[in-house]
Write a structure and sequence with these properties.
Blueprint lengths: L1 H17 L7 H6 L1 H4 L1 H9 L8 E2 L8 H5 L1 H13 L23 E7 L5 H6 L1 H8 L4 E9 L4 E5 L6 E9 L6 E5 L2 E4 L5 E4 L5 E5 L5 E9 L5 H15 L14 H22 L1 H21 L1
Antiparallel strand pairs: 1-8, 2-3, 3-10, 4-9, 5-8, 5-10, 6-7, 6-9
Helix pairs in contact: 1-4, 10-11
């Protein structure tokens, strides 16, 4: 039984690693968060109703049409927030999902995050908030800003229960501002939307002369069977709500994000260890993997 579980885990990691044309270095993949979620994501990919392609047709999600139809209204609320400097990085290292993005200039304002409560979104962006609440397949949404010179390094998101939707609000309308998903580039344009599978390797840059602001949404992945859809919904509600991060005081911070504050503090010591001796750091990582395998064997 132990070896069967270990075999499933290894197969799942290999599935994630070899999915698509672009891959992380294998050593990085072993320690990547997507590896720890690999068995769950193998299930999501196996029973997914949508094609296994980096980009998906927005027209296949007709319930999202009101977002493009009202993009001027959404843009105006986003620009108002930008003027108030409310689109910003997390202030207390309590954004487990996007913490690594902030050091490259990326900023966000949450409009919705699964079952978490964000009263600030309803108060400051009432029209956008109402639009999002009227579309059940939207599980999470935010305004995301990438400034001139900003970037996101190659990564894949850890949870395959959703698909990613971007709607250009105020963009450079320039090919120098782009996202690359599994080796295929898309440049944002005002009022235009794109849908992609965020479990493929993707990265972004803004080398244009102005900032980029988009509406960023997680759309529930359509599954082939009702029971699989129900399980996906439950997992999203349970796991992802726990990763909620606040915009302002009064917004909900999920349990995982609260624990991340402690993890972030511990990470400072990890970074010092790596700076002191990279060979020793790599040896310690390998020893940790061996210890986990040994623990699985002896349990």
């Amino acid at each position: 039984m132990k070896w069967a579980l270990l075999g499933i885990f290894v197969f799942s990691v290999l599935h994630i690693h070899f999915r698509g044309k672009v891959r992380l270095p294998f050593r990085r993949q072993i320690f990547d968060h997507s590896s720890f979620m690999a068995p769950l994501n193998l299930f999501m990919h196996t029973f997914s109703k949508v094609p296994a392609t980096p980009y998906l047709a927005v027209s296949d999600f007709p319930e999202l049409a009101p977002l493009q139809q009202n993009w001027h209204i959404i843009r105006d609320e986003a620009l108002r927030l930008q003027e108030l400097k409310k689109i910003k990085a997390a202030e207390k290292n309590d954004d487990v999902g996007f913490n690594s993005f902030f050091k490259y200039g990326w900023k966000r304002f949450y409009l919705k995050w699964y079952d978490a409560s964000h009263p600030s979104a309803q108060q400051m962006c009432p029209q956008t908030y109402a639009l999002l609440q009227s579309i059940p397949s939207i599980k999470a949404a935010m305004f995301a800003e990438l400034p001139t010179g900003g970037k996101l390094n190659p990564h894949r998101d850890p949870f395959a229960g959703s698909l990613r939707y971007h709607l250009g609000l105020q963009t450079p309308n320039d090919d120098r501002c782009f996202i690359d998903v599994d080796g295929e580039r898309h440049s944002w344009r005002d009022g235009q939307a794109v849908m992609f599978d965020e479990t493929y390797i993707h990265w972004a840059r803004n080398d244009a002369d102005s900032d980029r602001i988009i509406l960023f949404c997680d759309i529930e992945r359509p599954m082939r069977f009702r029971w699989a859809q129900a399980l996906n919904r439950w997992l999203g509600r349970t796991l992802m709500t726990a990763a909620a991060s606040p915009n302002e005081l009064g917004d909900q911070a999920g349990g995982i994000s609260k624990l991340f504050r402690i993890s972030w503090a511990m990470g400072q010591y990890r970074r010092r260890f790596k700076a002191w001796s990279k060979p020793a750091y790599n040896l310690a990582r390998i020893a940790l993997v061996v210890a986990v395998i040994a623990l699985i064997y002896y349990i």
